[in-house]
Amino acid sequence: MPPARPTPPPPPPGILGVEGVWRFAAPAVDVSVPQARHAVRDLLRAQGMSGEGYDELLQGLLLIASELVTNAVRHAALLSPQLVVEVVIGSGWVRLSVEDSHPYRPRALHNDEVESGRTGGRGLLLVKTITAEAGGVCDVERTATGGKVVWASLPLPRPRPEPQP
């Protein structure tokens, strides 16, 4: 009879063992930008995204949240008085998205340069850069109602293996 294999330990508490979807709506006004950033920060920390290995990822996600909500407030508020922020944690990744009802599809996610003299587009270029540097992807999709969802998905840090005795 072969020797019994030890049972693997349970995943550590926090984000490594959590999968889920969290959504919240906010009015498309300036004050929603810091409120959304703080809500995302508090949610991710509550799910265990803090400490070694997560600080850089968390800071990137908070900057992405600020830029995506700012864009919805600045460019979509006229046709979309409300926006929706969604955070999805999957096995090995986290996705942050902002949905609005405006049909305009931002071009900055698909261009590598912002036209000189233009002040717009730099925030989405920053989102694209942060996402790429983290090894993630970002894009924009149309909703069934004619609006859009702008999202960024980043990989979670891999847990360090336990030292073997």
Task: Describe the 3D structure.
By secondary structure, the chain is an alpha+beta fold. It is 30% helix and 24% strand. It starts with 19 loop residues before the first strand and ends in a 10-residue tail after the last strand. Mean pLDDT is 84; it is low at 5-14. Keywords: ATP-binding, Kinase, Nucleotide-binding, Serine/threonine-protein kinase, Transferase. It comes from Streptacidiphilus alkalitolerans. Residues 31-152 form the Histidine kinase/HSP90-like ATPase domain.
Notable traits:
165 residues, alpha+beta, 5-stranded antiparallel β-sheet, 3 helices, 5 strands
Q: Which of globular, elongated, flat, extended, rod-shaped describes the shape?
A: globular
* Percent of sequence in beta strands: 15-25%
Low-confidence stretches: 5-14
Main β-sheet, spatial strand arrangement: 1-2-3-5-4
Number of strands: 5
Radius of gyration: 18 Å
| Class from helix and strand fractions | alpha+beta
- Termini Cα gap: 26 Å
Quickly describe the structure.
This protein is 30% helix and 24% strand. The chain is an alpha+beta fold and 165 residues long. The model is unreliable at 5-14 (pLDDT under 50).
Secondary-structure topology with pairs:
Layout (H helix, E strand, L loop, with lengths): L19 E8 L4 H15 L8 H22 L5 E9 L2 E8 L21 H12 L3 E6 L5 E8 L10
Antiparallel strand pairs: 1-2, 2-3, 3-5, 4-5
Helix pairs in contact: 1-2, 2-3
